[in-house]
Amino acid sequence: MRLVLLDIAAGKSETAGCHGRSEFGGRAGTLRALHQRGLLRNNALTDAGLSFVRTLQTQSNKEQ
Predict the structure, then answer these.
(1) Cys staple from 7: which of 12, 33, 51, 64, with CB 3.0 to 4.6 Å?
(2) Are 14 and 27 in contact (CB under 8 A)?
(3) Based on C-alpha coordinates, what's the Rg of the chain?
(4) Containing domain of residue 9, as a range?
(5) Number of domains in the chain
């Protein structure tokens, strides 16, 4: 889920990096879960999604 959110925040499509039927199916489940958690709406980040992405980016910067 983290990578999908980061990709969408970077301006990539919600299916960026998917190759093959099973990957698209898995991505559909991930997108559904992100919608249910309120992080995506209409395949765009919500305010909660943006906040979560910022948290992920901050954690990533601390690890480097």
Answers:
(1) 12
(2) yes
(3) 12
(4) 2-63
(5) 1
